[in-house]
Amino acid sequence: MNTQIIPVPFYEDMLVLIGDDNVPMVAMKPIVENMGLSWQGQHAKLNEKFNSVIKLILTTGADGKNYEMTCLPLRKLPAWLYSINPNKVAPELLDKITRYQNECDDVLWEYWAKEKPATGNLKIQLLAPREPLPETTGGMHLKIRDIIALQQQYSRIMHDIEKVDSPAIRAGLYVQLRFIADTIGHDVPDLDSFSFPKTAVTPLIAHI
Length: 208
Description:
With 208 residues, the protein is of the alpha+beta class. Helices cover 41% and strands 17% of the residues.
């Protein structure tokens, strides 16, 4: 079976798209938690309403361990998204949930169309490109408060990379880090130089 892991940035969040034998699948736990919803409740709903199409996909983390990710076919994602009633969630989640419902599946389809090889043979994508990203500072005039905010975000992402051992999520975070680094003129180490969590995180992500 050919499996491709594609980290997909979505505003300030990171999604995980998986090519499973040439079929686009979405890792659901990152989406659920990004939206501020309870994974336990939504996992039960997924198993109840999408039992015939939901799938546990086994992936190998950078630590060499196997992890099962609860995935939904991308074509079914809108049905789940619109099963969330914005009027029944906390007010502070309303804007974000609406954004996911309106834009999330389009962004994922765009990434899938860009990453899917014409041959149908999928490769496991683990690390972000190491080549320098295009210069982004030309013509940009950042205010001091913007630079400070980007520096803080740069530091936060560096710490976030070392908190996870999922290759897809680490790669996606690294892409964001490189973009910010180019914007503010910072150097950034290779992804390989970042450490992994010192304690096992299997209980948190073994059933994504």
